[in-house]
Amino acid sequence: MKKLFLLLMLGAMLTNSYAQDDMDIVWETKLGHKIDYYGTDLSDRPDSYSFAADDKEISLFKNSDGSVIWTKAYKEISPKLRKVDDLLAFWESNTIFLFDRKLGKDQIACIDMKSGELLWNSDKYQEVTEDVVTYVPEEEGFAISLKKELVFIKARSGEEVWNTTKFSGTVGEYIYNPNDRTLVMVNFQPNLLVALFSGFKNQIARINMVTGDILWENTYIGRAERKVLTKEFLYKLDLADNKVFLRMNGMQVYDYNTGANLWSAAFDFTADVVKAPSHAQRFGVYGAVATPVIDGQDIYVLDMSNKRDQYVKKYDINTGRLLWTSPEIKGARAIPSMSVVDSKVMLQIGGRVETQFYRRYRQGDTWVTEWGVTYPEVKPFGVQALNADNGSLAWESERFRKGITNAITLNDSYIVCSGKALYSINPVNGEEKYEVPAAKGGVGQASLILPFKDNQIVVVGEKGVSTFNADNGDLIASGKYKTSTLFDRRDDILIMSTEKSDYAAFDLNTCRYKEFKARTGAGNSLTNSGEHLFVYEKKTVTKLKTR
What we know:
By secondary structure, this protein is mainly β. The chain has two helices and 48 strands.
């Protein structure tokens, strides 16, 4: 009897050791209409607010306590609206665009977010979607890309300030100069709008925001893109020493005053290494090619413009002079990461890439809408190290021919994950410092590793999250969960999600998690701080505390 009692006590202790809490509900608000559209202010400011809507009504509510500020029918906001087919929120301008699509007679109503009052409406601009509108807060207006022109209108009045036919495509990343009110901008062509911009060409231009005059324009190499779901731009514009630096599949440098191309180390690459899911209206593959690495006055660039000939090239960042070209990297379809460690250029060949998609399809009598992020593996796999001084091959590892999730650099350590194990590799000679089974963390096979703090490895497993010491491979903490995938991360908060829309918020300091079980297909938004998760289900909005 005593033995049975001890066994029961031990079982209870083990159960409690794995037991986790539910996420604390900050508030829950039930609206008087369905939630087909929603927008969340992710700033976590005390005075922030968000909205939820269906095709007839829209409500604005406070993020602090969930109280509804106002609810209005669209026909009450604007007599010209009977329904709404799309909404587009601009938090910086405190406005929302409402779209009523009417086959060539689209109505746009711009409303004040705080009050729900109509600011202006227009049927002048057709085929406007979120992909062709860019808010320029420095000028308090919208740049709208249309089929034949780019127009700039004031956000609060709808007044058209200027238009130009000399810039095609959507305004992407830009650099604003407050001294002369000019903008250096790069155009891009959203996936769905290839037909809209029939005369599209790659353009980087400097424009006078007062008059719309193009001061100079030039072309760029490659394809400027924006992620399908998270909307991050996949390129970067910088200004230094009167030079414009465009980092996109390499580096391109322009004179700020004249637009002249000073030097270029860039290539055109199409990431067609993963097929789109069925019924996908939007799809993108990201992270198939490592971003350029700047090390002092040197820049290392992956040239994968030709699938048969792939190289690393080293340039002088000041002059663009080619310093060396590596031997050919044969057979690589993806090189997701490149880093410079201990005078070696480390290359991860193959492994996990990111895809984002939007699809809509009919299932029986209903339409199913899905947004998704996946991390498929691309073969072949391998690890190479090049000598940073001349580009020659320093060493190549055969260890990872069967699989790689990804590789990260921590301090002077190069950590590679095969899925089944973690390997710390000496960059100088390729020798292994240690090998640790990923299953040691108790969360199944690793799908991804991430850096944390100065010397910790986060293992995102099939069934939870664990952390390891990067210096010696010792297990630090572990949190076992059900079968799930990475949803999002903010610093020390990492969110895992299941196919049934259950969410677990892991504190990476302890690997303990808090869970919330949402309805399948629920909408969600994680705030920038990672402190709160908003969940949208049918008519209910719930604000949750992740810690």
